[in-house]
Amino acid sequence: MPKLISKVRASLIVQRFSKLTAIRNGGKEVGDYIQAMRTFTTSNGHVGELVSRSGQKQIVDALVLGERGRAVSLLYEFSLGNNKLSADDFASILQSCARLPDPLALSLMSIMGENTNCYSMLPIYNNFLAACYETQTVDYANECMDLMEHQMVGKNEITYAQLLKLAVLQQNLSAVHEIWKECSKFYSLSPLSLRKFIWSFTELRDLNSAHTALQHMVRLAFRENSYISRTAEGRFCDLRLDIPAPSSGNWSSIDVSLDTVSSNIDMERQSLGSMETNTARKTLSASVMKLLRWSFNDVMHACAQVQNCDLAEQLMLQMQTLGLQPSGSTYDGFIRAIATTRGFSDGVEVLKVMQEKNIKPHDSTLAVLAVMCSRELELNLAEVFLDEMSKIHNPRPYNAFLEACDVLDRPEQAVQILAKMKRLNLQPNIRTYELLFSLFGNVNAPYEEGNMLSQVDVAKRINTIEMDMMKNGIQHSHLSLRNVLKALGTEGMVKELIQYLRAAENRFSHYDTYMITPVYNTVLHSLVEAKESQMATQIFKSMVSSGVSPDAATYNIMIDGCSIVGCFRSALALISMMFRSGFNPQAVTLTGLLKILLRSEDFDGALELLNQGISEGIQLDVLLYNTIFQVAAEKGRIDVIELIVEHMHLQGVLPDPSTCSHVFAAYVDHGFYNTAMEALQVLSVRMIAEVDKDTDEKRTELENLILGEDSKDEPQILETFKDSKEYLTVALLQLRWCAILGYPVSWSPSDSQWARRLSSNLASTNGLL
Fold it and tell me: Is residue 769 part of a domain?
């Protein structure tokens, strides 16, 4: 006989769940519902009649339609009857309640559970947990577990499966391990159950546990093949009896965990290879094969997420040994694991294997390869992968292609890919528009000044892109606004620049430094480049007075602006503010100060400032030295150039093409042609040292390029430019030019008379400038 609920117990349960109802529903229905529950029990403790069969249907229909208020009213109305019914008569209501994670369902289930066989309630509780997962209402799931514990309902494998999904929903890896431990105490886990644990571990990126469980599943699959079947609906089920685990007991007597399983597997691994070889010849059922393939795929995709290509290769080999043919999904995870770790070229090789097996790659596989090719600036190959994709819902691979076009300055290829996006009705996101402003905001080539025609064209382009943004309901981000501001600044459109700054001020909070400060920096930099120092000063003062915190870049821009008017005093004031804000001067700061001193040809002051920066530990760069070289070359100060060249060498700062140009021009302007060629050779060899380390084999290869008379040599040198090695390209061409004019190439710059003379001159000054 099922234990009957007492009036006191019913009252306590109703009070307990009515509190949660009152919080979530404002308490409107609570009074009627409590009254219904109170009249639910009679004076002798037996269950009173709630509803007739037709009444049950009315309540069920109301619950299904989501009309909870009407269901409560009907429940209250029918609870006034006097006929006695058993708890089993309310099965249909309970089943409907279990599909609705709701205090009404919990309260009714709690009372019914006290008046019927506890095992008959287990499917209802499982349904309720499933509903909690579907609606992501974890609080109700916890209440349900408390009820199950109180009523000693116990758990079966379906319960554990629902708990696994809820634990994964909460990203709670420790809970998954606890469920594994508890489930293993009472059940000899079937491949179907192991599949669910493998899925849980991979969702939470616990690759070690997932792999351990997978190996256990492999062994189990061959021993328990007959246990797995498929229902008429196509779902998998376990044919063994599912006896519920007790809700409580002596847990200390059993200690089963992943570590235990792992140690057992380690003991068996010596025989695993031979076992796989022998058992792979056996014919597994289609159901078991599918379960195994799904689990391998889960772990394979986890390998891609954590970039573990070694384990991915092991899994692929094991699948082949077991006779499991990899599917497109398997290769999807495998290629992503390989490509993200070893590069897109290895992923392309795997893709060729798929093509040989007539396995169509997933769109996600092609998307990953397209993104990686774009990152490597292989636009043609990236475009091939984009063309092969059948269904595209995410603009990410297209954005990666646009980003590569932006890096390589190829707007014409970007236009083609945009046309393809339009044909596919693929809606852009904010990243797409950020890149469009960067790609098409400028009309003129770099270092060309804007004019009236180009400014009109830029305004039209920006307006067209913004209209498309409005059509798709997308607002400006701080980066898209910055790209617009850069475009306007490059074209010298100061009026429009200030207008967009005001729009940015309204769009972003002045106290959100991460968002607004870079916007101000972009405007200030554009104004300084446009020689609008007075307006830049006004913007800077307005920025500070409105509460926007300048960063190091802001101060450096303003110090650079002081060089326009040659105001060293203002620059020192800015450095003082910089210190108070917690920023230390850097090479770019010294460069700004040097420009001010060099404007008045104060080379002694510039050299003194350079020494001071070195003494304070500032890491100097080539741009700083080039600032001095440029002015010294213009003013014909070869003595300064030679002093700075040697000191630059001692500081370990390698020259760049601008360095070579300034030094070479200074000697040529004074008629020192041989010295100019010798200096060009030395600086070019030092440039090569930045890109390639000196080895005999490498030197021979470079000498062949420099001294070769084949017409293919120069184009081969230019190929290095495509690999983003422009310094190497320039250095090789300069050395080839020297060789053509009859100057031999020396790989030891210290042997040069010019280099030795510069070293001696600096030594005579005791290392001081």
Answer: no
pLDDT of 11: 40
pTM (global) more than 0.90: no
Tell which residue, 143, 205, 124, 113, has the closest CA to residue 17: 143
Amino acid, single-letter form, for residue 570: S
In a domain, 444, yes or no: no
Phi, psi dihedral angles at 688 (to 5 degrees): -65, -35
Distance of CA 738 to the CA centre of its chain: 49
DSSP 3-state helix, strand, coil percentages of the chain (rounded to 5)?
70, 0, 25
| Each residue's pLDDT tens digit, 714-755 | 666 666 555 546 778 888 888 888 888 888 878 888 888 999
* Structural domain total, the chain: 2
Q: Which helix (H) or strand (E) holds 375?
A: helix 363-375
- Chain centroid to CA 327: 27
Which residue type does 522 have? Answer: T
Please, are residues 140 and 147 in contact by the beta-carbon 8 Å criterion?
A: no
The whole-angstrom separation of Cα 379 and Cα 424 is: 20
Give the lowest-confidence range in 221-230, 313-322, 746-755. Answer: 221-230
CA–CA dist 253, 577 (Å, integer) = 70
- Amino acid symbol at 43: S
Which residue bears the tokens 């290509």?
A: 309
Of 668, 666, 653, the closest CA to residue 618 belongs to 653
Domain boundary among 102, 133, 154: 154
Say how far apart CA 323 and CA 370 lie, in whole Å. 31
CB 7 within 8 A of CB 114: no
3-state secondary structure of 229: strand
- CA–CA gap between residue 657 and residue 636 (Å, rounded): 19
Which domain, by its residues, includes 123?
1-154
CB 156 within 8 A of CB 245: yes
In a domain, 6, yes or no: yes
pLDDT of residue 10: 38
The two most distant CA atoms of the chain are separated, in Å, by 121
* CB-neighbour burial class of residue 457 (10 A; exposed 0-12, middle 13-18, buried 19+): middle
Q: Which residues pair with 236 in a beta bridge?
A: 230
Residue 686 belongs to a domain: yes
DSSP 3-state assignment of 41?
strand
Q: Which residues contact 447 (CB under 8 A, 6 or more apart)?
A: none
Distance CA 217, CA 93 (A): 39
Decide: helix, strand or coil at residue 551.
Answer: coil
